[in-house]
Automatic annotation (TrEMBL):
GO molecular function: proton transmembrane transporter activity
Bilayer topology: Single-pass membrane protein
Record keywords, A-Z: ATP synthesis, CF(0), Hydrogen ion transport, Ion transport, Membrane, Mitochondrion, Transmembrane, Transmembrane helix, Transport
Record's GO cellular component terms: mitochondrial membrane; proton-transporting ATP synthase complex
Main subcellular location: mitochondrion
The protein's name in its UniProt record: ATP synthase complex subunit 8
Transmembrane segments: 6-24
Organism, as annotated: Eurystomus gularis
Amino acid sequence: MPQLNPNPWFFTMLLTWLTFLLIIQPKLLSFISLNPPANKALPTIKTTPWTWPWT
């Protein structure tokens, strides 16, 4: 079965992961977010309990 032969695909996968880890990831992590998240107070939501008909 040719699908089980890892020879041509293992090197391709390894090269892809190394490219991502060594080249693409540092470039992506160097970007500065233009819109940083603000520390906002979350509004408290007042909920009423559900009234079950059999209680």
